[in-house]
């Protein structure tokens, strides 16, 4: 995460007519200027996207605790003596909010927590969200209703920040910004890491330095300590991105590592119907109380969610929804007419990549290790913000007379031996195909750089001829 000063500007005749450097001592000596130039330009041009992602990510990590404070009345209740049957709690919610259909029920997971009855198709509520009705499990009193989004049960505050972080509230088009940031974060972090460790130890000292060298020391030191976290955020962020994420899903499917889901069809295989919205009656067949009891008998401890049958030929689904450590993601399908369990999926039986994906996403979103996880994410976000600000400061300090600094000289790729350059370009092309928001901007950078270099060369040649 370093940029070294150059002696000439890119578009000066001297730069284009510079003397050919001495032969490099080895492949790394030839590659270092190329890595330096890529790190410099990627840092300058991609940093604004990373800055937005880091700032909104910082807010999102803090939103979990803010949500508990803001919606404490709806989420918590005084502990009572005996909980009402879940069917009575749902009936109380339906009496207060008769519109829409019950798409899921989340029984109180803790002694002081409310039960959430989730309603879909409620007028005024977005299609991708539900209305969560909060019911006191001891008295049946409705304590409020709020829109809920996603499997983590995000309420309005966290939902707004989540969407701001994911797509800037611009829908699918806005997702490109976050995928671009995730695609480049590991490249910039990795480039800075190798540049920092390629410096002499004496040049990495922070104590006793000032000016640009001190900024460089702060930039590099913090970057080294945070690099592993940046790699993790980049990798996990890409797993559910629009384009790279689809390639990852296809790869997992081809390796038989897709996430299994319980079948909601009697006698069916794991067909992935467990999350279907309920169209039928919530008390269809044996009813919620017996369905929940069947799930408990299979070892499904709190927190759980009950999904009513999607239609007359579907089953109830009871699934664990704890995504903090230890992860609880077991699920069962229950036959509506008999109350018998007809299908079971255990998290312990998930394929390895499915487990890693689950844990990675949950750690990325701050739920795997609770508040410790959220503090770690806030630390990484703050580190990235500081690194970007220090990077721009170094660019400024690189210049003269209060002007932004000069870029790294062109032509670094010409110093790389062909036996290194050709495989490197092939690997970059393959990577760019699977991570298009890395490959496309990189191709644009190279094309623009070559064009500007040709313009500078021609301009310098004309000046020299005169």
Largest sheet: 4 strands, antiparallel
Helix content: 40-55%
List the helices and strands in order.
HHHHEEEEHHHHHEEEEHHHH
Mean pLDDT, nearest integer?
Answer: 86
Number of strands: 8
| Uncertain runs | 1-24, 267-281
Spatial sequence of strands, sheet with the most strands: 1-2-3-4
What is the distance, rounded to the nearest whole angstrom, between the alpha carbons of the first and last residues? 41 Å
Q: Give the CA-based shape.
A: elongated
Number of domains: 4
Secondary structure class reads alpha+beta
Q: Over all CA atoms, what is the radius of gyration?
A: 28 Å
Number of helical stretches of at least 4 residues: 13
Our estimate of the beta-strand percent is: 5-15%
Task: Give an account of the 3D structure.
This protein is an alpha+beta fold and 466 residues long. The protein folds into 4 domains: 30-74 and 168-258 and 371-398; 75-166, Nuclear Transport Factor 2, Chain: A (Roll); 259-365, no CATH class; 415-465, no CATH class. It has helices at residues 13-16, 27-70, 72-75, 86-96, 156-167, 171-198, 211-239, 244-254, 288-297, 352-364, 370-398, 418-434, 436-465, and strands at 101-106, 115-120, 130-135, 142-148, 304-307, 316-320, 331-334, 341-345. Strands 1-2-3-4 form a 4-stranded antiparallel beta sheet. This is PepSY domain-containing protein. Residues 84-144 form the PepSY domain. Residues 1-24, 261-280 are annotated as: Disordered.
Which SSEs are present, and which pair or pack?
Blueprint: H1 13-16, H2 27-70, H3 72-75, H4 86-96, E1 101-106, E2 115-120, E3 130-135, E4 142-148, H5 156-167, H6 171-198, H7 211-239, H8 244-254, H9 288-297, E5 304-307, E6 316-320, E7 331-334, E8 341-345, H10 352-364, H11 370-398, H12 418-434, H13 436-465
Antiparallel strand pairs: 1-2, 2-3, 3-4, 5-6, 6-7, 7-8
């Amino acid at each position: 995460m370093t940029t070294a000063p150059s002696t000439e500007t890119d578009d000066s005749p001297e730069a284009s007519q510079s003397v050919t450097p001495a032969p490099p001592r080895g492949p790394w000596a030839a590659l270092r200027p190329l890595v330096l130039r890529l790190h410099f330009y990627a840092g300058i041009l991609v940093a604004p996207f990373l800055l937005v992602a880091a700032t909104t990510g910082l807010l999102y990590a803090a939103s979990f605790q803010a949500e508990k404070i803001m919606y404490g009345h709806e989420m918590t209740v005084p502990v009572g003596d005996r909980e009402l049957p879940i069917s009575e709690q749902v009936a109380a919610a339906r009496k207060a909010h008769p519109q829409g259909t019950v798409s899921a029920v989340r029984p109180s997971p803790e002694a002081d927590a409310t039960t959430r009855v989730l309603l879909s198709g409620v007028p005024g509520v977005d299609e991708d969200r539900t209305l969560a009705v909060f019911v006191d499990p001891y008295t049946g009193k409705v304590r409020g209703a709020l829109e809920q989004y996603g499997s983590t049960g995000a309420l309005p505050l966290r939902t707004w920040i989540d969407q701001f972080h994911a797509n800037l509230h611009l829908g699918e088009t806005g997702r490109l910004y976050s995928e671009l940031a995730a695609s480049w974060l590991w490249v910039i972090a990795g480039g800075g890491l190798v540049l920092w460790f390629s410096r002499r130890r004496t040049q990495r000292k922070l104590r006793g330095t000032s000016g640009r060298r001190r900024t460089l020391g702060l930039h590099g030191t913090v970057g080294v300590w945070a690099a592993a976290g940046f790699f993790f955020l980049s990798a996990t962020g890409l797993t559910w991105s629009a384009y790279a994420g689809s390639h990852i899903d296809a790869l997992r499917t081809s390796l038989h590592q897709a996430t299994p889901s319980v079948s909601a069809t009697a006698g069916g295989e794991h067909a992935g119907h467990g999350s279907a919205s309920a169209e039928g009656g919530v008390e269809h067949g044996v009813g919620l109380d017996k369905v929940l009891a069947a799930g408990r008998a299979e070892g499904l401890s709190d927190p759980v969610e009950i999904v009513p049958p999607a239609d007359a030929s579907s089953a109830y689904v009871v699934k664990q929804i704890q995504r903090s450590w230890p992860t609880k993601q077991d699920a069962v399908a229950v036959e509506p007419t008999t109350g018998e369990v007809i299908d079971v999926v255990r998290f312990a039986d998930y394929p390895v990549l499915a487990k890693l994906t689950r844990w990675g996403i949950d750690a990325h979103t701050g739920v795997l290790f609770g508040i410790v996880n959220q503090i770690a994410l806030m630390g990484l976000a703050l580190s990235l913000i500081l690194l970007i600000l220090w990077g721009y400061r170094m660019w400024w300090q690189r210049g003269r007379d209060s002007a932004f600094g000069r870029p790294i000289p062109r032509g670094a790729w010409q110093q790389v031996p062909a036996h290194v350059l050709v495989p490197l370009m092939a690997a970059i092309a393959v990577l760019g195909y699977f991570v298009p928001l890395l490959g496309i901007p990189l191709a644009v950078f190279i094309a623009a750089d070559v064009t500007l270099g040709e313009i500078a060369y021609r301009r310098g040649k004309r000046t020299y001829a005169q």
